[in-house]
Amino acid sequence: MDPSLSIEKLKNVGPRNLSRLYNLGIKTLKDLLWHFPVRYEDYTQTLSISNIEPGQKVNVQGQIVQINSRRIFPRRMSVTNAIVQDSTGAVKVVWFNQPYIEETLPEGTFVSLAGKVNLDKHGLYLSSPAYEKIVNNESGAMKQESGIKDSQPTIHNSSLKHTSGLVPVYPETEGVTSKYLRFLIKPLLKTIKLNDPLPPAILQKYNLPQIDEAMKTIHYPLDPGQADLAKERFAFEDLLLFQLKALLERRKLNQLKSISIKFDQEFIKDFISKLPFELTKDQKIATLEILKDIEKSYPMNRLLEGDVGSGKTVVALIAAMQIAKAGFQTVFMVPTEVLANQHFKTVSSLAGQDLLRVGLLTSSACKLNGSDFKRSELKKEIADGGVDLIIGTHAVIQKDVSFKNLAMVVIDEQHRFGIQQRAALVKNSNPQILNDKQAPNSQIGNSQQIVPHLLSMTATPIPRTLALTIYGDLDISLIKEKPKNRQKIITKIVSPSKVKEAYRFVRDEVAKGRQAFVVCPRIEVSDPRKEIKVSGERSKMNILWADVKAVEEEYQKLSGSVFPELQVAMLHGKLKSKEKDEIMKKFKDGDFDILVSTSVIEVGVDVPNASIMMIESAERFGLAQLHQFRGRVGRSEHQSYCLLISSTSDKSVNQRLKALEECDDGFELAEKDMSIRGPGEFFGVKQSGIPDLGMASLANVDLIKKARLEARLLLKENPSLTSYPLLKDRLESFQKLTHFE
């Protein structure tokens, strides 16, 4: 059978199940086979009925000696009772609302059962166990055994899918159970032939199984060790593809041409000396790394990682100053209008109009050096080279925005922009043939189309393993130091019983002239049933989110009953841009005491007078995100506080929040967060195209190092991978699938 065959070609997949399988991302036989188990039920040991005990999950095999069904009124319920016997004894079995079982398993049938043993006043029984008939050739052997007193039945039929051995449990959706998936997958394992993309030498070197063997043992292992080895083999394959992709991207980038901007040390020293603060050691190192990068004749591709408030913006500004002095342009792209306005004000005040012509371009604002401009006039200025640094949102990448000589693109909070948006920006930013103008401090060959340097900035610290894989094609600069004289933020977990005390504390702080943020996880309360757009586990998560306090609800509560004497404002994503900006401006100016917000506050907002960050239902957020919220306060000389309001008293849930009380290092918290939630959820790549197993492997440092080494060796030996056609094909499909937004 061909793995690329559509799933609808399988005999037992009808129209109803087809759409359900699509919900799980299963469209081909390959998708089905790569739908790996999340865990296994251990039914490797078949117990004699006389040896079973309450609370055990067991596999027993025997003969149905009695079975009947009855309806219970008025509960509209049916109960099927059976007695199953082996050579050592008998046990009662109960199924609910499955009356057809009486016909499926008539008296005399030999069955294999798997389930939990319960105890009531009538004795032991199995409640709703999984069941399978034992086929004729095996039941004959069982009859012979059952004639021997106290013998142990040992029927292990290889055709058993659901009740014997390590039974796979898969990610499910409504209408597609693990039982149905096992029913589809097990026969395929016998008939399908897979081509192994991994070179035999690599498999041998690391003692990894070939793909056919690994596929069988990941679905139906004989023991846990087999399952682990199969998982490692598939994880290694994904990591090798990650590494090959990153190394090829880097090589491709190094073959492109970019504007070489000469590093003018005296000019940069003079600018830094006039800043109203001293740069930290990390800021100086990052600045030097960037200035050295933009001297090169191929494009920079650097990620600047820095904790909230660590001073990434000024580092990017210094590079933009150098580029402007050389006669070229920089674009600074941010995810929200609130942040664009904030950066515009910060950069304008630090640079001064004499040194840098700074433009702001968003969907609702157009400014140049502090003055309002018509959109058409500002676009003309940009196209004519009259703007050195353009700060903006998605408005910057519209088709009618073109640049005269763009040398660098800075993207803040990189993964908030989609791949297509980045591609559009690069497309619009290629300075065309630059024969007419060669700036004095730049070198570029005539008639050469160029690609701008790229600096990505993020306040989400990337764990080391993700930096080696997802960001493998980037150079990375780290800013770990906090600016001098920055006080540590005091963080406290507030249990439901202590919320009133927390409100009292907020009131006291406001009385001292301070302000407070209140963050809620979801935008508004609505009918949870309407919120459910998918089934299974994800639908449960949607319901959980729907139950979380809404901003509107929280605003009404705080402004109406908790703080009626204070000025409370509300900010969420459904407000128009102008309304958001107006609310933020008033809050920053002190017109409001408390701002209730969704997680829109996470990105970049700077209100120095705010000293309290109160986060409702804090356990709903990841540690890295909570740390970013916390960084929105503590930006002045005032002592600041972060109050983590938990909606549960469950100690195990709140244990995770303890890490925030004890640690204020974003990089350390990111590592903890990824270990708790897993790389996929940590990075928000549920739609990344990476299989769950491949995503989970991003936490395995040793495996990443092995994959990185082998990727380098393969490309050194055979740069085009023509000697490894199966691996090359697999890499091409992997590159199409994987993306990070």
UniProtKB/TrEMBL annotation:
Coiled coil: none annotated. Keywords: ATP-binding, DNA damage, DNA recombination, DNA repair, DNA-binding, Helicase, Hydrolase, Isomerase, Nucleotide-binding. GO terms for biological process: DNA recombination; DNA repair. Residues 498-675 form the Helicase C-terminal domain. It catalyses: ATP + H2O = ADP + phosphate + H(+); Couples ATP hydrolysis with the unwinding of duplex DNA by translocating in the 3'-5' direction. Pfam families: DEAD (PF00270), Helicase_C (PF00271), RecG_dom3_C (PF19833), RecG_wedge (PF17191). InterPro entries: ATP-dep_DNA_helicase_RecG (IPR004609), DEAD/DEAH_box_helicase_dom (IPR011545), Helicase_ATP-bd (IPR014001), Helicase_C-like (IPR001650), NA-bd_OB-fold (IPR012340), P-loop_NTPase (IPR027417), RecG/Mfd (IPR047112), RecG_dom3_C (IPR045562). CDD domains: RecG_wedge_OBF. Its EC number is 5.6.2.4. It is an enzyme of class 5 (isomerase). One of its GO terms (molecular function) is ATP binding. SUPFAM superfamilies: Nucleic acid-binding proteins (SSF50249), P-loop containing nucleoside triphosphate hydrolases (SSF52540). The keyword DNA repair applies. Residues 293-479 form the Helicase ATP-binding domain. Plays a critical role in recombination and DNA repair. Helps process Holliday junction intermediates to mature products by catalyzing branch migration. Has replication fork regression activity, unwinds stalled or blocked replication forks to make a HJ that can be resolved. Has a DNA unwinding activity characteristic of a DNA helicase with 3'-5' polarity. Belongs to the helicase family. RecG subfamily. This is ATP-dependent DNA helicase RecG. It comes from Candidatus Yanofskybacteria bacterium RIFCSPLOWO2_01_FULL_44_22.
